[in-house]
Amino acid sequence: MNSALRKRLGLLLTGASLTALLGVNTPAEAAQNPYERGPAPTEASVTAARGPFAIAQVSVPSGSGTGFNNGTIYYPTDTSQGTFGAVAVIPGFISPQLVIQWLGPRLASQGFVVFTLDTNGGGDLPESRGSQLLAALDYLTTRSTVRDRVDPTRLAVMGHSMGGGGSLWAAQNRPSLQAAIPLAPWELDTTWEGVKVPTMIIGGQTDAIAPVGSMSIPQYTSMTAAPEKAYLEMKNGNHFAPVSENSTTAKYALSWLKRFVDDDTRYDQFLCPAPAPNSAISQYRDTCPND
Fold first, then answer.
1. CATH homologous superfamily of domain 53-286?
2. What is the rounded CA–CA span in Å between residue 131 and residue 68?
3. Which pLDDT belongs to residue 32?
4. pLDDT surpassing 70 at residue 21
5. Most buried one in 17, 102, 195, 248, CB count within 10 A?
């Protein structure tokens, strides 16, 4: 081997070594998942109040679409990375959009389009709220001013209390959804064998309105057809603990959305192995995401 060839080979090997050492994605590696958005996650990044994306918002007044009332869309302003996955979020019994609105900028800044909603009526039952979630997603992907920023094949639903029950209903009735995250779901029906969407339920240990023993846990157990599922129980948490602004809900909801809406396995580390009980979590059950 002549000296020039040895020098060229040495440079190639050095470059490859640096790439591996720094964890830089090669074009081939990046092409394996075109949905990754943002840098590799860390504990600090998944619990941060804001992610790496600058965001904007647009109000959606009543009458803009059919099947839902009104809401606010939060979205990343970056147009260089292609479209983003999206999630619709709805509150619970007699609760305004304000209760769940913190999830809008928090998740949008991590690389999602987020549509937070007011309900048609404060007393709407879970099925109605689930229908509103789906109607909002349909509007978001077909008629909204940000529709070109949304990937219509990568959608999710979230909801609190009766809205959590609504997200279960939406998941069962639209299996093309990529993820569902019911927060302290209030729903008397605990038989959800028809849910075929990756679903994470977040409940409160001391919830007296939607007791985990009679709602969240049986709901989780019943989802035998879900390809992946998880149940997170907030230690000493009441009915509003999962929906109050907090790093536990944010961390695990974000990781679930990233893993199943964006197919981003970099977030597996926060879901599997299951987190042990700690000062924030009284118990955690899951099927452990498979790559």
1. Alpha/Beta hydrolase fold, catalytic domain (3.40.50.1820)
2. 8
3. 80
4. no
5. 195
Q: How far apart are CA 10 and CA 16, in angstroms?
A: 10
Cα–Cα dist 23/17, whole Å: 10
Q: Phi, psi at residue 121, to the nearest 5°?
A: -145, 145
Contact 130, 168 (CB under 8 A): yes
Token pair of 220 as six digits: 């989780």
Residues above pLDDT 70, as percent of the chain: 89
Q: What is d(CA 290, CA 227) in angstroms, rounded to the nearest whole number?
A: 9
Angle, CA 190 vertex, CA 94 and CA 186 arms, to 5°: 15
DSSP structural state of residue 97? G
* Tokens describing residue 193: 């064998």
- How confident is the model at residue 2, as a pLDDT? 44
Q: Which two tokens stand for residue 147?
A: 């529709």
State how far the Cα of 184 lies from the Cα of 73, in Å rounded to an integer. 23
β-pair type (70-76, 112-118): antiparallel
Amino acid of residue 153 = T
Q: Which two tokens stand for residue 201?
A: 């339920």
Report pLDDT for 223.
98
Q: State the pLDDT at residue 290.
A: 62
**Domain boundary assignment for the chain:** 53-286
Full 3-state SS string of 104-121: HHHHHCCCEEEEEEECCC
Average of per-residue pLDDT values in the chain = 91
Would you call 181 exposed, middle or buried from its count of C-beta atoms within 10 A (0-12, 13-18, 19+)? buried
Residue with tokens 């019994």: 93
pLDDT at 18: 37
Token pair in block for residue 167 = 């997200």
Write the pLDDT tens digit of every residue in 77-119: 999 999 999 999 999 999 999 999 999 999 999 999 999 999 9
Catalytic center residues: 161, 207, 239
Give pTM, 2 decimals.
Answer: 0.89
